[in-house]
Amino acid sequence: MNMASPREFSRLVSPPQDLRAQYESDLVNIFRVLWSRKLLIASVTALVALAAIAAAVLLGRTYVGEALVELKFGTDSGAIAGTPVATVDALAVVEGEAEILRSRAVARRVLEQLERQGEAKSPAAGSQSVIASPKTTDSAETIATDRKLVALQEGLTVKTDGKTYLVHVSYAAKDPVRAAMIANLFADEYLASRVEVSVDAARRTSDWLATQVAQAVTARERAAEAIRVFRQRADVIAANTANPQANEQQMRDLVSQMSAAQADQLRLEARLQRLTAAAAAGQTPSALDLQGSTDAQRLIDAEVTARQEASRLVQMIGTKHPLYIRAEKTLEAARQQLVDAVAEAIRITQADIDSMRSSQAALDKQLAALKNAALGSQMFGNHMRSLEADETTAQANLDRLREALRQAQALTQLKPIAAQLVSSAEPLALPASPRLILVGILGAMAGFGASLLLVFLLHLRDTGFSTSAEAARDLGIACAGMLPRRTKADQPQPRPIYLNAMKALAITSGLAEPRDGCVVVVVTSARPSEGKTDLVRGLATALGALQRRVLIVENAGRREAGRQDGAAGQQEPERIAGSAVSLYHRTSDDLSAIVGCRDRLQPWIDKVGSHFDVMIVEAPAILSDPEALLIARSANLVLFAVQWRSTPRQAAASAFQQLTPAPGQSAMVVLTDVDLAAHRHLGKRDQLYFAGRYAARNSAPA
After folding, report:
1. Residue 326: phi, psi to the nearest 5?
2. How many C-beta neighbours within 10 Å does residue 368 have?
3. What are the backbone angles phi and psi of residue 178, rounded to the nearest 5°?
4. C-alpha closest to that of 222 among 395, 106, 77
């Protein structure tokens, strides 16, 4: 009993097959195909390279002006002391600034500057004014302006350097001076636009605080005037009434509460103003203004992260990629949450202001009541001190407002991202394009690729057999030989290579050996015009040279009218002068009837072939006339003629499958009509290649 485990049997696997020889053969065949098409590859490569160079010369020269803008992320950018600084990704900010520089808004500013400077010409044409005619409609003017903007942006190239935080602003134009000027305009307008955007909100806050300062100055002057009037009316300060310290302390507390409430109200009103302005302008407020929201910093960070991701994706994969569309949706959601948070902060701030105003009204009532009580119960001294306290409060409020105004004015000079023009563009006389050497190299590479594709397509069209090995492998039979194509040089005497190929075919097929009786050979093909007649006559001639008596029957089985040089029912073949070859012509319909009937064909072959060693019968094509199959059954040897690189492999295989060899019958394939020049260029190392090579050496003089 076998006690081995199944795991032991699983280890008994066959050794891996070594495919190295097959891969090497495929690689060699690929190189041979390419080498056979070397002239085509070289011609296409040279033609495409020359065409690319000619196109580059005809397109004209292009000059590039380049300006450098540097972004700084240090702490010396003018930030106010005590103001928290948010941590951001510098590389993402640089990419975002580059997108702003490429934006249509900056291009529109540049276009306006060009119009002011008298350079209002289309960057593409260089001669048409961008200022539309007064008769042009608004829509036509808008379309014309948009076209000029698109043409202006086509020459702009913005590149970033994450290591040095440099932004390269390049512009391409036909004129070097114009290229440098427009590059500098883009850099200058970008810097100006960033300054305007950064100080816009601070300027609005500064204007509002200036109004509040003016009101505080008026309140302080009013308090000082009240003290002056009271001093004029009262010459003597009366003594304090009972418990004056408590009333005085209470009034001081109320005044302090009033001052704190006013300061808080001013702070809340300023915050409300900033939030409202940010919501109207679609800008992101600061985290300090969103203190009423529980996750304000998270929402701001989410919006910044989503905007950075969208900027990164549009640079990498474009605006139509699903990832970019998803990033846009995420950015819209983050912005919507931030807008909702701003709205909630505005609502909370407004509620706080209303509450603060109610508190101030209550404090005003209490303070008025205390003042009335003080007027009634205290002497004019306490009233004097109350007036002085009012003046002190007004002065403190004025000082706080002035400090806030100073900070707002400082913010108007603050740049969130410090940027400066490091190097302005200068006109360069050396054109940036075209670079003829580079264009030629790229054109040659493109031509080489196109030539490889052309060779591949031509190779796909080559559906015929190129070598005897291919025919033998696909058809499953031996290849008896390859016959060169008959040319004018073969008349009247064939070339030695043709005669040698025929002789090799006669010997390979075994027809040159002496046998008992007549050997019947049927020559057929898959389709008509495969060179069967030349094959029959050449093979008969080669056998005749080998002292074999040969009878050939041409066009066997055909119904059309043949030669009429003999009497009807002629039974004797013609003798070819000076040769052991006899030619049987169909001179009547009797031979067609014999060939088309197997009962008559075999006795006829036995009778006529008794006087010959070999009988070669030319049968029709199998796919066009099925009687070829009937004729082939009476043969000892079937030669299947296939035209070299012409007969489709599938057609040859389909026709050959219909040949069912009888017992004792053999079949061989013969490649006919081989073009020696094309065969030599293919580099196929087969029998015809070596035969022609060594025959040429033997024929050369010693």
Report:
1. -65, -40
2. 11
3. -65, -40
4. 395
Cβ atoms of 296 and 342 closer than 8 Å: no
| Side chain identity, residue 63 | Y
Pairing of strands 637-643, 479-484: unpaired
CA neighbor of 264 nearest in space, from 122, 360, 163, 153: 360
Q: Look up residue 33 and give its two tokens.
A: 């195909």
Query: Which residue, among 570, 607, 605, 609, has the nearest Cα to 587 in the 3D structure?
Result: 570
Dihedral of CA 455/457/458/463: which sign?
positive
Block residue for tokens 């035969």:
691
Q: Which two tokens stand for residue 291?
A: 């203190």
Residue pLDDT, tens place only, 245-286: 666 777 777 788 778 877 777 887 887 777 787 777 766 666
The total number of residues shown for the chain amounts to 702
Could you give the angle at the alpha carbon of 294 between the alpha carbons of 292 and 297, nearest 5°? 95
Measured between alpha carbons, how far is 378 from 381 in angstroms, rounded to an integer? 8
pTM for this structure? 0.43
Residue 460: C-alpha distances to residues 455, 616, 644, 683, 699 (Å)? 9, 36, 16, 18, 37
Alpha helices in 378-509 (DSSP H): 380-412, 436-461, 468-475, 496-508
Residue 87 is given by DSSP the state -
Q: How far is CA 297 from CA 85, 93, 198, 342, 348, in A?
A: 12, 18, 20, 12, 17
Residues of the chain where predicted confidence (pLDDT) is lower than 50: 1-2, 4, 8-10, 12, 75-87, 120-136, 235-242, 560-571, 586-590, 700-702
Residue pair 102/319 in contact by the 8 Å Cβ criterion: no
User: Do 587 and 655 meet the contact criterion of CB atoms below 8 Å apart?
Assistant: no
Name the burial class of residue 583, with classes exposed (0-12), middle (13-18) and buried (19+) by CB atoms within 10 angstroms of its CB. Answer: middle
Q: Which residues lie closer than 8 Å to 575 by C-beta, 6 or more apart?
A: 582, 583
The CA distance from 81 to 103, in Å, is 34
Q: Where are the beta strands (DSSP E) in 175-215?
A: none
